[in-house]
Amino acid sequence: MENFLNFQDSQTVLGFLDSGFFSALKFILGIYMVVIFLDIVLLLFQRGLKGDIKDTWIGMNAPMELSVGRGRFRKKWNKIRKKIDGENESLWKVAIIEADKEIDSLISRMGYPGKNMKERLDNINPMQIEGIEELRKAHETRNRIIHEEGFKLEEKEAKNIFGYYENFLRYLRILD
């Protein structure tokens, strides 16, 4: 096998690389690359460069449950769900308290500010998260369980409240 490219072929390739068409193509692609680079820089400045580079690159400080930690979270959630399926009012109350705690932890790690869940929920714009009003109602029920002595919780209400937490997790695609 002689040469991969014989002399005639190499002259053709070199002729194309020196052609006006190829020069114009290189010029247009160069401008295109500069525009894309400037778009990226402007978007980063618009978003703000402060904070974690992960936040800047991904768009938010996403908890593990939103990406790779779903299985572990689902196991924990299924243990809580068993309590809500029980026949005992005290188990229903515990399930709601535990569910609220898990959701609060998730919202906190999503980057919403606040000292407690109520403040974090108040900092969420209803346009940002679907079903936020249901979550507020569920949290209010949790507060009543904690703070009101003798608070009675009916099975239907407990399952509805727990459903609000699960709807939120489905919205985030943590649960199926």
Mind explaining what this structure looks like?
The chain is mostly helical and 176 residues long. It has 2 domains: 43 residues; 108 residues. Helices cover 68% and strands 0% of the residues. It is built from 8 helices and no strands. The termini are far apart. 15% of the residues are buried.
Task: Give the tags.
176 residues; mainly alpha
Mean pLDDT: 82
Give the count of structural domains: 2
Low-confidence stretches: none
Q: What share of residues are in beta strands?
A: under 5%
> Which percent range fits the helix content?
55-70%
> Can you summarize the main beta sheet?
none
* Amino-to-carboxy terminus distance: 61 Å
Number of helices: 8
**What general outline do the C-alpha atoms trace?**
elongated
Task: Provide a quick synopsis of the model.
The chain has 176 residues and is mainly alpha-helical. The chain contains eight helices and no strands.
Would you spell out the secondary-structure blueprint of this structure?
Blueprint: H1 7-17, H2 20-47, H3 53-58, H4 70-84, H5 89-109, H6 117-122, H7 132-147, H8 155-171
Helix pairs in contact: 4-5, 5-7, 5-8, 7-8
